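User: quick one - fold this with iron/sulfur cluster bound?
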Amino acid sequence: MTNLQSPLSIYFHIPFCRHRCAYCDFNTYAGQEAAIPAYVDALIREIEFLGQTIRPSDHPTTRLPDHQTIRLSDHSTIKTIFFGGGTPSLLSPAQFERIFSALAAHFPLDDPETTIEANPGTVSLDYLREIRSLGVNRISFGVQSAHPDELRMLEREHDFFDVIEAVTWARRAGFENLSLDLIYGLPEQPLDRWQATVKRAVDLSPEHLSLYALTLEHGTPFGRWSARGLLPTPDPDLAAEMYEWADSFLGQNGFVQYEISNWARAKDESRKPVPSAVEGMKDENMKIETFHPSSFILHPSTACRHNLQYWRNLPYLGLGAGAHGYAGGTRYSNVLRIKTYIERLTNHQLPITSHQFPLTPATVNSHRNTPREDMQETMMTGLRLTREGVPDAGFRQRYGLSIAEAFPQEVDELLKLGLVEWVDLSPLRPPSLVGKGGWGDRLRLTPRARLVANQVFMRFV
Amino acid sequence: MTENIRNFCIIAHVDHGKSTLADRLLQVTGTLSDREMTEQVLDSMDLEREKGVTIKASAVRMNYAAPGGQAYELNLIDTPGHVDFGYEVSRALNACEGALLVVDATQGIEAQTLANLYSALEADLEIIPVINKIDLPSARPDEVAEDIVSLLGGQPDKIIRISAKAGLNVEAVLQAIVQKVPPPKGVDDVPLRALVFDSHYDSYKGVIAYVRVVEGKINAGETLRMMATGFSIKPVEIGIFAPTMKPVKTLNAGEVGYVATGLKTVQECRVGDTLTQAAKAAPDPLPGYRQPKPMVFAGIYPVDADDYSDLRDALEKLQLNDASLVYQPETSQAIGFGFRAGFLGLFHMEIIQERIEREYDLDVLFTAPSVEYEVVLHDGTTVLIDSPAELPDEGLIAEIREPWMNIEIFTPTDYYGPIMDLTTKRRAEFKGQEYPAPHRVQLNYTIPLSELIVDFFDELKSRTKGYASLDYQFAEYRPDALVKLEILVNNEPVDALATIVHKKDAYHKGQSLITKLKGIIPRQLFDVAIQAYADGRVISRANVKALRKDVLAKCYGGDITRKKKLLEKQKRGKRRLKMVGNVEIPQEAFMAVLKLEEE
Ligand SMILES: Nc1nc2c(ncn2[C@@H]2O[C@H](COP(=O)(O)OP(=O)(O)O)[C@@H](O)[C@H]2O)c(=O)[nH]1
Ligand code: SF4
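Assistant: Sure. Structure tokens for the protein plus iron/sulfur cluster:
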């Protein structure tokens, strides 16, 4: 089997929030900010731990998997770093600095895309300047809505003025890659209010927008209120309309959709001519796909590269309480609670050979994917990429068979239902050959399938 | 030597404490040690335990030393506790000389109690009334005692009052059994006649027949014969239940035990049949044998067509133990290959459904139950149909006849009005009323069976806060103005959704069925039109709009696993839907016709 190599992404989970928003079911805790220093220490220990176990030379017992999955080695460079939460902007610049130097000491960093999620209202100009100078080059603000009453209902602790201020400061601090999160389909939200939110967000000229439909999750105040009938359930048809409106509005305003919920502003053009040979083909914006000959630039350079790593089913390490990771063919997740996470890492003596990379003392669940499971997940995540889809050549290189060979009935049925299509963005190939096994073929959702994508994904699991 | 034998059963309404009392008796007589004592030993099937009823009878022998030192052999014969199993109950009663009538001190007498009591009196049993649950604060033992006395005579203060749960006064029950229940008559030195009152299938020993030796005796090793089916049997073993199976050399007249027949299906060893010796056969069988007759019919289809042969296996295995389950292959144009099965009643059908799903782990779809119609054609022939889909062309039909039942509803007098209202809506004819106990009335009607199987029992319960109870027997076939109500999905008739209804109900039933189906059929990738059609015209129509949004938004922090689980769950849900053409229809749609609101 081809020896595939991939660079690595790293996710840090920062499970602290000043206040829990009413719809939020993330692994995050309010009122535990006092634990942040110890938590950062624990993160650093986890970095050290992984840094030591990833190198086979240090531990002869570490056998890196060589089945279908992407091979990791000490050559694997870190191409993206993401701090998610929670509210990562609750960490001080000094704390970020410690994390970065620990990372640099243990992993080869290659000019990574480094994102932090931040809540407007938790940042200042000075703060943004400092973290920018530490290497954070992308920032994602949780905006959610432009309307004070909606923000109150969501129990967000900021208003839209905070957003304007935060964006202005971020620009002044030198952030050239800025993303905003918005939520649609709120209870009783009329279409025009959503339109106003989108317009005001676009007015702020972000490079990137994520639009999420509100889901009423079990165990959140929203979930409880709606179960008791106090909160009307959002109308899915109206939410669909909001999505479609936003899609066309963003299109008119220079944004390109590259994933079901994500749009990036097309600064440069996203589509480049097809190189004549696979060999040596490189994407200037994303040099990571050395093994992935056909997944070149199907997205603007402002697309979130960290998220692309997830959707392309490529390896990432998850550090922190409740973080999820996928590396060496293993999916795993860490213990949820902050206190236990800290305990597990501080009470642990390094080095340790009983844990095989990528597992650490904080890991509580792990599952080694079978080749079949891995294929399923590649389809389920890859089809979320609305432009790129799942490239057949990459799939074949990874698993030794084509998509249509791996999922004959599923693909057939979905093609008939008009939910997926074969495309080849190469202008050189006659359409009659598309989907016939050419190296540029990719399977992706049709536009109408974006809103009913579960009907597609479901068939691959 | 039958002097010291007592054969008895317990009759009670569901939940009045039959199983609890049985447990206590086993415990007090030392048949089971306290340690072995698991709750409700007589109900050996899980399902029965959950449903709180005994489906299959069994029998157990207890040795009891009476206060005077005399030793007795007590055989407790368990009886099924539900109206669908009336015949089985009557056979079990015939194996006894006495019956404990257990009445819940908080509930009083109910229809099922009465129905079984009448059967027990018919079988000429000595009745020992017992008032149970006197430990409960809401117990009204004096009132209940009055009710019992007005039924059975005697003196209210002489009726035994117990708490089976607390073990209070259980000894008195044993003494009463010994004193009042007569020992079995019957002599050993005549040709054998033994009554089969139950059976079950054992994978090692074949069909186990539960028998009461009425006269003569069974010796181990002797060849026997089933008098009704004519099968001859070389028993693998004979024995008693003490309480588990224990082999013996002989079963004498008056005794209760089992014969391991080696037969392969319970169909060959029917409840009610008589066992005799092959060599020296009795001239006549015991009276009262009859073939179980299915009353209710439904289609059973695998949700996934690939499960067809598994479903056939499951039905075959279930039939090993259930002589009253009948089935044959059936094909639906809409939903493919399946079976048409007949059941003793709705309750029996529910049990089969649950067992298929639980014990065989199959997703199956039951169509709405139907009765068996007699259709007289213009050419004078009569055809029997038990599925609406089989109804011949309207033009050919001279007359449709349907089965009518006699029903007795037993209720506190307060609910007279609501019951009259319900029965009128269901085309019932009032026949009369009786007052078997103070504040209680028994209302007698005849009613089409088709009306009875459509949620009647639940309606009755809900209109009477659970107090009313019901018993029924077949009366006769009667003609009426009946029509087929068809459902079209995207303009294609779905045979499995068709029903036969009274002409005057067709319109409102069609409408409410469409409303119901609109709520049940999930939105698909395209619009789905549903229509009700009867008597040559469309009665009602509705549209299930296409699904617009079904997508998980956020993959939070790379948590693919959770996402995948959600998708897997969704996929499992989808698998339970039945493809009809290209429309996915959930199982409940096929039962929707049972749940049409009563306006
Ligand atoms: N309080 C009280 N509860 C009882 C008594 N006997 C039975 N029960 C309860 O009544 C319910 C039904 O009893 P069970 O023996 O299963 O009734 P069956 O359906 O007639 O077999 C169970 O929850 C028993 O625990 C009793 O003497 N006192
Ligand atoms: S800020 Fe984000 S992570 Fe924190 S509670 Fe609100 S939604 Fe949840």
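One thing worth noting: The domain at 374-480 of chain B is CATH 3.30.70.240 (Alpha-Beta Plaits).
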